[in-house]
Amino acid sequence: VERNLLVPHVSHILSMNQIYPLFSHSKQQTAQNQENGSSTNHAESLRRLYSLLSRIDYQKYIAQDLRSVFSQYVQSRGVTIINSCSNDKDIIPALLSFYEDVASIISFSFRNDELFQNTHKTSVEHYLNTAEMKIVELLARYVDILLREKTLSNIAVGAAAGGRMITAPPSDSFGNNRSPVTSMENKLSAVIIQFRLLHPKDAFETWYKQLLSKRLLQNKSSSIDFERSFLAKLKAECGAAYTSKLEGMFKDMDLSTDILGQYNDYCSGDRKATTISGSVPMDVTILTTGWWPQFAQYPNFINYLPPVILDHVNRFEKYYDTKYQGRKLSWQYSLCNVCIKADFGIVDRNKEFLVTLYQALVLLAFNPPDVETVDVDSADMNLINRGDDCIYLTLPIIMQKTGITSREELERVLQSFIFGKARLMLRKKTSKKDPKLRSIEDDDLICIDHSFKNKQIRIKIPQIQSKEIVKAEKDKNVATLDKDRQQILDAIIVRIMKARKTCQHKDLMVEIMNQVKHTSHVPTNASVKNRIESLIEREYVERNGNERDIYNYLA
What we know:
Ribosomal Protein S5, domain 2, three-stranded mixed beta sheet, about 60% helix, globular
């Protein structure tokens, strides 16, 4: 009876117009009806449909028809989310939410049918890899945002202080209490699920390493425990080789803490060094070149350091050379951070500014002429004391005082002070150009805003990022990724040919594809052929005479 009643209507029921709305609203209504006890919703309708079709003919109506429609819905909806989000930052949260929605449909309506679970994974894998490089970058940046969240640092501080948490933990949409720690672990686990389905895992490692380095060096990570937790998840997913460099970065941070402690002990036994370190403390992080990203996109634009910093640098180099002979230090000044204390003459307005080294040099250039760290030439006097008790400097003079060699970099530093959220400096235009223009002219007069007000005692002044540097960072990541992939392919091909000596093209391609399955990237046939041609040009491999599809290994 059921078959006779249902079969004529199955094709209409499973049409996109009928079934898609059930998929779209099932999760939301499931959550709502669990709260009010109702069971009349789209999720329940899907559950009844699944039950009825299973009794009639599971293989045809469930395994084929319903599964096919379900797969089309997941793929099309995923692609729509990727292409329709106006802000790229919203794509990953939307995809994670969509994944959870579909998983709840499978759990409730399809009774955890393994066939639908597998279809869900393959459908997600399809839409994630339609824009793989974009998704890889966005997923790495999403993790970066998660691990920078300030709420986590508050949890860590409370735990370290031994304080008691008296507030109730947040609840999920079903009313279940979840602690912030559990919530974060769930978010990181959700990211791993998406990561597992991505093909270019090596690209994710490149982006993640870049962002992790900034969190560690700028002290932006809210919890080292969560950092290590996510690293452990990556290691469990891809193996120790995948995370070896990432783990090396954490080792460098721990080792740097030990070296700095030993250096401070060394300075405490030297009266001159004690005088230097006592006036301005310095933290140094020693980075192993092979573990960290290349910082070529952050060139050093300075040829001058304030004496107190220069003395520290020279003394640390002397100590390090004595302790580690044969090693060479290369200072990355563009990655340095400085805490500048400012005295505005009123106790309530004494501030501390967290700035880059370039920003610090600019601030020091505005110290009064009687301060030893600033050398004011007589030629500068026409820019000083113009009747309002401010020191006015032009961009060329600031370049001379700071030793910053790049005009573009100095202009960005000044813009961060003049137009940023915390506007510490003022600009007076002497030309007739539009004062609203943010570009800094050579004859513009720059001064410290002595009426500066801010409720915070310690204020961070963000540096304006150059579009060229941001683009160079992306280009560098892509170039590094391509180079690494080529080297891996070259090594695999040479290893195969060295073992076989002679091999047909078809057999070589099969063996290469079998071996690259164990790497973090599966290349296309075209890229493999390009690497074979490259090895032939470099005389690692040769074609066998007139038999163009046979290769010989050249020892």
